[in-house]
Amino acid sequence: MSALFQPYSLRDVTIPNRVWMPPMCQYSAAPEGPLTGAPTDWHFAHYAARATGGTGLIIVEATAVSPEGRISPYDLGIWNDTQVEAFRRITRFLVEQGTVPAIQLAHAGRKASTDRPWKGGAPVGPQAHGWQPVGPSAIPFAEGHPVPTELTAAQIGDVVGEFADAARRALAAGFEIAEIHGAHGYLIGNFLSPHSNHRTDEYGGPYENRTRFALEVVDAVRAVWPDDKPLFFRVSATDWLEEDGWTPDETVRFARELHAHGVDLLDVSTGGNASGVRIPVGPGYQVPFAARVKAETPMPVAAVGLITDAEQAEKILANGEADAVLLGRELLRNPSWARQAAREAGAEVRVPDQYHRSV
Fold this sequence. Notes:
This protein is an alpha/beta fold. It has eleven helices and 13 strands. It has helices at residues 41-52, 81-96, 153-172, 187-192, 207-210, 212-224, 248-260, 287-296, 310-318, 329-333, 337-345; strands at residues 8-10, 13-15, 19-21, 57-64, 76-77, 100-106, 134-135, 149-150, 177-182, 231-236, 265-269, 301-304, 324-326. It has an eight-stranded parallel beta barrel with strand order 3-4-6-9-10-11-12-13, surrounded by seven helices. A two-stranded antiparallel ribbon has the order 1-2. β1 (8-10) and β2 (13-15) form a beta hairpin. α3 (153-172) runs parallel beside α6 (212-224) and α7 packs across α8. The chain is globular, with a radius of gyration of 19 Å.
């Protein structure tokens, strides 16, 4: 029996299979005007294709909790009701296809205000719809990046409130699961790592202080997110630094605390907080970090990282390394990956009536 096509339940939400789509920015929203940050026809077509392709859970790309929280001026946001209304079209269609809609709530921190990747991804200023980034400390991400403004304790509290407000709007937009983005060197990850957090107040220094902001965000979101709906957290399990970075040991410890604070699943990735590091990229290269969290904590996990074929994904689940797999690049290449994998495994997956000829 295929593990990939077994349903998976968290709280009162049942996901029809273990083939999940991770957040992947499309950089396709309007950078200015009344529809700034709102999903467009591109976003609808992009997510709808993966839903009709049988994907069990779709996590909509990093969606900023404030204008300054976007990675680029072309990112999605959920800081106003116009954006909420635009998202409803997407969530409604995903639900109709049997796919569970989720959203990643994000703040880009010191890596904000950059251009689209196909334009080079360099920092942009006001002349190109840019703004001044913020962070836990006045330390730029890399050479050529601006020095971020160090957040005050009061401003940190404001950002916590923005995450809670975004969660309320995500619920109104029809999302069934919310994910807090704490990975890839964005604001929450900036606070977690001593590489980017040089503060000397209650938000910097020892582990307990560096994790304070993240746990405050989790508590604020969990307080407004319904008890019957799951909450995920995405983490970079390592900065891939030999010293002075966030470590796998800290990730395990943090996973236990997140679980105690009401997080239902850890989405385990790596890297993104330090520039110029060497990462041993290869098939499933991040899976061992998810497997360790699953083995050493009560936290369910999802694995990601160059998972491309059904046999590989089945083994990850069968070996108990993760509870689900997140296919990024492969779902960009093949929106119907889930349907094809189910057919090969002799498993059942929902097929739209309009596609009955493909069964």
